[in-house]
Amino acid sequence: MLRPHVGRFALATLMLLIGSSLTLVYPQAAREAIDAGISDASSAKLNWLAAAVVVVFVLNAAVTWARHYLMSWLGERVVAELRSKVYARLLQQPLSWFHERPTGELTGRLAADVGTIQSIVGSELSMALRELVTLIGGLVMLFYQSWELTIGMLLIIPPVLVTGFAFGKRIRKMSAAVQDKLAETSAQVQESAAAISTVQAFRREGKEIERYDQRVDAFFKAALQLSSWRGLFIATMSLLGWMAVASMLWLGGRQIIAGTLSAGDLTAFLLYTTMVAFSLGGLANLWGSLQSAAGATVRLFDILDRVPEIRDADDAVALPASAGRFAFVDVRFSYPARKDTAVLDGVSLQVEPGETVAVVGRSGAGKSTLAALLYRFFDVDQGSVVVDGVDVKRARLSDLRGRLAIVAQDPVLFSGSIHDNIAYARPDASRDDVVRAATQAHAHGFTTAFSEGYDTLIGERGVKLSGGQRQRLAIARALLADPRILILDEATSSLDGESEALVHDALQTLMKGRTTLVIAHRLSTVKDAHRIVVLDQGKIVDVGSHQELVRREGLYRTLVEHQLVAA
What we know:
Shape: elongated
Strand order of the largest sheet: 6-7-8-3-9-10
Distance between the termini: 63 Å
Helix content: 55-70%
Strand content: 5-15%
CATH superfamily of one domain: ABC transporter type 1, transmembrane domain
CATH class of one domain: Mainly Alpha
Radius of gyration: 35 Å
Number of strands: 10
Largest sheet: 6 strands, mixed
Low-confidence stretches: none
Oligomer: single chain
CATH architecture of one domain: Up-down Bundle
Order of helices and strands: HHHHHHHHHHEEEHEEHEHHHHEHEEEHH
Structural class: alpha/beta
């Protein structure tokens, strides 16, 4: 992800190299100052050295700012692009993948996991590079000052590396566990908030709070354990570093006594040793952070690297000019999570352009599954689904879904304005187009009754509107999409009489000139269909008009009688 910004990265690295090189000048200045004060007793040389050090300080401050700004820009840019890539890949996954994961877990990945990586890429990566350059430069200068002392100091490096890798592996696993615990808490918040009316209706607030507290406590314990191990790691690495400094102080003192090393040389050597020790300690801290980020990275790249099962084939074709014809050919299907249960078993059905076909049956008969397969939310196990002569597996998904529109029993609306919700299918639609669609769907009247009209915010999932109003907005959205094939999935089953009459009239407008698949429990809504298909246990058991089906014995007649008795 850094590759497209290689120019900025190279400039930031240059600033880092310059800054680290200037840092390595300080011990040499100290060596010269001490030797000048002890051996030469030269105040002029001390003055010159002090002035030079001030200039180096100023230059170092300038390049440090430039390096920090450039690396921060790169970090924020990469993280922003990472969020976009993860979100884009998320939306490409099939419905079955979402059915297996709580929504809160997925939002947690975009929030907590990306946030963890953000601190690494935005600042700590820069610090790690700086510490690495200082470490290498410090070691080079240590060899220059005294190779004998440096060899002795380097004996501490193997234990440092072994310790770092041992702790890092443990911290990485614990960090992934902490992120999982956090995702679980996010998932519960999402679930409880989405079902708040049910929670309150059944007086389960206390139980939900208790369940959330248990998850928060589990997260706290896991995070505390991680912090404890990271603290032990940093403390151990710091101890090893300072032991190296102490050892060098002892060995250097002996060389001064022997006359093979000057006081200035030992001072410079100790300063370089301190630099190396701090760099090792800093890298140890950053290594712990990187291991924490590694757990989050794995979770994010689980999404980024996942190839969706439902996607355009390599030889995908554009659909021909739309006629609105579709067919199910000997379709057999089971949901991925319930492979042992057949939802559709040998279903064959052809619907001609402009025809209205209703599908009825008991709950669980597979009615809504037909709509899901037509949209290619799932792929059939056997057989085929064909739209305008092309198997949907070979058609471009954008072409296929551009020909369809659905009005469901519980339409999904977004938290924006009425205008935005109607225009969701056509974001470039003008206000006049939106108003025209709303008028045809009988949504213009209640919309203009609001003080802000089409700019009225309707709340999450349209909670500020009634069921009938939400349904009419969904119809207006479908009208604006202007599909060739329309799917009505229980579109009027949960409405009162007045709302149902308005919605029914709007649906008649929507259905004109379109091929329509009507899925319904309430049989009063399917009487005018050209054909009624009766599904039972995943199979078509009867086909005919309303009059034909009620005249003969069968499931349809039974369903009609039951509804008449219930009425």
